[in-house]
Amino acid sequence: MSMLPGPDAFKAAIFFIVILLTLLPATTSSSSDGKQHNKRPPNVVILFADNLAYDDVGTFQTNNNRSSNDSSSRTPRTDTLATQGLKLLHWNSPAVLCSASRAALLTGKYPIRTGVYPRVFEPDAQHGLLANETTIADYLQQEGYATKLVGKWHLGSRPGYLPIDRGFDEWFGIPYHMSGGSLDGHVCGKERDPNGTLWLPLFDGRDIVEQPVDLTNLAPRYVQEAREFILEHASQQQPFFLYMAFSHVHQLCAPRFAECQWASSHFSRGGGGGKEGHSFRAEFGDAVEEMDWILGGVMDALDEAGSEVSDDTLVIFTSDNGPWTAEQSCAGSKGPFKGTWLKEHVSDDCTACPSEYKPSPLPGQKRRCIYPGTNYEVMGVSCGEDSGLGSAWEANARVPAIVRWKGGGVPEGQTSSEMVSTLDVLPTVLSMIGKDIPIGSEVDGIDVTDVFLGQAQSSSSSLPLREGEDNQNETSRRRSERALFFWRDGFKTGPLPAPFGRFDVVAMKIGWYKLWFWTKSSHYNADEEVYHDPPLIFDVLNDPAEAYPLDPDKHDDLIRHALHLMSEHKASIEWSAPLTLARDPKYLPCVNVESGCRTRPLPLDLDGGGDSIDQAEER
Q: Quick one: signal sequence residues (predicted)?
């Protein structure tokens, strides 16, 4: 007698299987490797601050382990974000200036590969990020994402170099830094704006919609643009990529040094309806608070879109660079990253001035700086103190960073000390949505998904695993062997015009070890670069101030390994010509030449009640 089931039994089995399949969820969650499997990819939100120091964020301040409800913190919403995700304590900026940092974020490449060096793109730049570079927005757009930039671009302001030309469907913001042009109530000096037509523009897509931009309501407009974008695409169930590039906390242009920061009406010193009237004048702390408020508005929009959208959004918060130290009260704090060795080894006679000011000492006024052609004067700082923006010292290299993805496995309320770079954002995001980077793309960043998911195996060793040692997976192995390289200009001599000199690796990191080959203060101060052979070595985990060099004789293996990695790194580079040097006034953004590059008439009190440049010259 046959033991095979009959037709009725087969039908019953098939019916049972169909019922089971209908009961299974239509999608699956991300697996333990953080990659998406048969699921709509997560939304991506990148929150990118401008010159926000590590110590400017309450939860990162080393003198106080702040909580999200700490009333003394300037950044309560950012602090809350940290409790909902992973706080990264060793996140590194990939470049010493902001155009290069932003290019690295979007491409995953060092600036020497993209040509975004040695300086930033100025308003009259001939070039920008080249079209042959594939940005994270390009990749995500190809995967069906809606893409939008709100805020600062700084990678070219001419047609053909705008965000719309580099993978973004939409853009609402300014083309460069906040000191890039004049405002009604804050006019740039003749060093920056000799013709009086350099008005800071606001773009919507390819069009200038406001020139100069009205700062009294810019922050609320940033929030509204982000909110509408999130809600629109969440309602359409389309994955979205929002790049919120804050215009905060970069200072305004010189020479109105006493009014160097800004905030919209509800955070400004004018207070909208206050005794000073409608104003954008602010102190540095006000700018930090408003940046935090904008961040909160973005997070509120995600919540408004529903918990499913909010939970399935990968949020990355960090800063392009650290504080512009010479700007003093107009900029942030170096915190524990004091650059002590530099201070102790640079002549105290050297003075670093705020942007566009020049040293002009007088008896009893050693640090006096003046704005050329005027009587405006401020006090500078010792060059040895100037170890923030424009340098590779830890105050500029180490930036705050937080990652949150509630539905994707990012741990909540934890910290990581793994070495990570902004370079890693592109390869990691693509990995987490299940997309591979095309072969031959020369991306310098690496996939740090295991770090984001709290699965990285920290090691105190700065050298790669040797044969016979406990092996890790390929990603962890590559990370244990990686180095970060810090490129900068400002050398006394070289193929580039003064004051740039040449563009070279001045320092590198392997784990928590930092090796210095050339030391110098920020930007183009008068102190000359100093070569170190053997290199200076600091353990920046235990010595974040970079005060106590380690004995090189006890670190021979480390030095040999570092020199080998640097040689390999430089050999891998096909040097790209510097794109940031070519400039011409005809490239300045201008809504209408006949209107003087303005969308509204000149106000009667152009300088907002303060002295004009001409009045200052007469004093």
A: 1-29
